[in-house]
Amino acid sequence: MHRAAMGVYNCVSWYGKIGIVCGSGNNAGDGYALALILKEKGIECDIILVSSDRFSKDGKYYFNKCIEAEIPTLLWTKCNFSSYDILVDCILGTGFAGEPRGDCATVIDKINESGAYIVSVDINSGLNGDNGMAKKAVKSNLTVSVGTEKAGHHLGMAKDYIGSLTNCDIGIRITEKPYYLIERSDCVSVFKERRSFSNKGNYGYSALIGGCMEYSGAVKLANLALSALKSGTGVVKLATAKSLFPSVSPYLLESTFYPLTDADGSILFDPTEIDGLLRGVKTVAVGMGIGNTENVHKILVHILKNYAITVIIDADGLNALAKYGMEILKETKCNVVLTPHPKEMERLSGTGVEDILSNPVNTALSFAKEYSCTVLLKGSGAVVSDGNYVYISDTGCSGMATAGSGDVLCGILLGILSQVPENISITLAVASGAFINGLAGEIAEKDTNPVSMTSCDTVRAISTAISQILKKINLY
Q1: Are residues 230 and 303 in the same domain?
Q2: pLDDT tens-digit profile of 143-193?
Q3: What pairs with residue 377 in β-bridges?
Q4: Burial class of residue 320 in the structure, from the number of CB atoms within 10 Å of its CB (0-12 exposed, 13-18 middle, 19+ buried)
Q5: What are 443's strand-pairing partners?
């Protein structure tokens, strides 16, 4: 507790009137230890108790020391939270799950309404340390995680509650298998060296199979292809219903159109056409706006049975698997990447959305292990797993909550996976793609605003995001 408190002390520029709000567990103990350190440094503070008669064993030890040191202590009902310049949140720790109630809930509201600079110790009280979900939680200016960051700092609702996040390492050994947080430096490895003596074939031929009359989304289909090109692939073949050619072709400037036989705008399965499309192709993405039909499932089965390439399955491709059967995933020689959002994962796994949101890491991990694939479970933070390793990407922004954002992600993944070096794992490449997609979204939101932003803005920002990763420019 002392090391944790010292770590928090070193992370904050202390000023003005300080209140440390303490609950009844070990998180409160960190607060009591912090009060002692502040006292030793000549910084006055108050201890604000949510409860005056409940302490953990170790917390009680430090509380007694605070009493001996004559640090002012008061019950929250006697406190004017708005009178403090800094409030330190030490109410609930990372083990909390559920909804704060009673006095605890009221105190959280008062902290949020105080107008003070708020520091949360380890995690914001009320925020779940495993999944980042909350019914009610403290909104911090700064959260100081202790030992290591937790999944809940990066998933679910975490961005809505955590202003800034920093970690203090206090020498706690990690005993369980770790999750990995993707950072910019991790993404550099997924790009091949670009030599002057090269051509488009050196960076992979890729294919997109998507679109139908009902969900033609001509611009979105073009954005998909453009996203892949901006992310490194050498050639993109856009395969869609032949009848959609007049609407898509004006937007398809750099990619090749590959018409597929259709009936009333819905693609029909023709193995000869699929074989022609995939000739020389390293990576294919299937499912975006294609419609949830048995023909889509037949296309997937044909590819998964007869090829040993990388296959990204998204949107209606996922729905077709869920509806018509997923056992083919266990039989294929392909590297399969699934990109579900929670509702699509519900259809695939049979696990309800609420359960998926409450345990996203294990959901992705267990499904990937069972079906020998890589799962990218989408959300405000993405979880990527191959059934062995778990990667988390926390880039992205509220402006990306708009139609077509998933299509852009799929295009980025296609571009990266078509040219990723052989020594880089598919899972790391997918996690890097999620990071780049979110980073491009953040850049786009800064150039526009969260309300007006569209997926086209994210596409335009892909090159800037990759430039930042390759350190050609530095906007931050």
Answers
A1: yes
A2: 999 999 999 999 999 999 999 999 999 998 888 888 999 999 999 999 988
A3: 383
A4: buried
A5: none
